[in-house]
């Protein structure tokens, strides 16, 4: 078979990988857009990862998504790293270029911002101070996108304060660290509130933060999407805030990879959202 006629292959690499929703997202778009291509989950051991990434293009792979626990490590394997991936310190989207090089990008921040834009159409990162709960990998992508979007201040609270302090040192003076037990204090005057911890996820404790100081004009979002409406979102909605659930971030972060690999730009639609909830 000639190179030109090769069926493009893509996939997601992690370990474990069975839980990943990416294959469902990509298969939905491949079918919807009539693209001849395939997307597969791959559980690859860490000792085999570098060899696998170098070999996959030879098998017809045009790119792969990367998930836990390899998002940081793949930056060392890539030949080119996007500014966003460098700032966030991890990549979720690798593209195998025609010259054999690996290009690493991070689309989590893009997914985060697009989700808010769709869910709260008047929202802008620059609307006012942002309040971010959590200081893990997801919080890093969120903070980077607030800085890129022109937020005047990013207030940050994390159970382990040293992790928040480390992000403050890295991202600079726009980031202000608050004490975890007094996280409610950072909500006064905040335009956007983000839960970037795993609290509220099925099986975990709820995110309990007093919302007394929060303006009704604030937009509240949760990166947790199972359940879709977390206790935090329910509470915020009950006091009149606009809320945006976390499922859209997962869907939107997949758009740039699909477009790069399969040559068509997919759209995040209601039927896709519904398909993910079954
Ligand atoms: P991710 O890449 O998804 O952000 P992570 O790096 O493990 O994952 O970060 C998880 C986040 O949830 C962290 O901010 C973590 O707080 P710590 O840094 O103190 O661990 C937060 N988190 C997890 N369980 C928590 C809990 N029970 N209470 C408060 N925060 C919690």
Describe this structure in words.
With 278 residues, this protein is an alpha/beta fold. It has 2 domains: 9-107 and 254-276, 3-Layer(aba) Sandwich (Rossmann fold); 109-246, NAD(P)-binding Rossmann-like Domain (Rossmann fold). The chain has 11 helices and 12 strands. The protein has helices at 22-32, 46-55, 74-77, 83-88, 108-119, 137-148, 161-171, 231-238, 247-252, 255-262, 270-277, and strands spanning 9-14, 38-43, 61-66, 80-81, 93-96, 102-105, 130-133, 154-157, 175-178, 192-195, 219-222, 242-244. Strand 5 and strand 6 form a beta hairpin. The longest helix is centred in the middle third of the chain and has 12 residues, at 108-119. The protein is globular and about 60 Å long. The model has no long low-confidence stretch (mean pLDDT 97). 2'-monophosphoadenosine-5'-diphosphate binds next to helix 6.
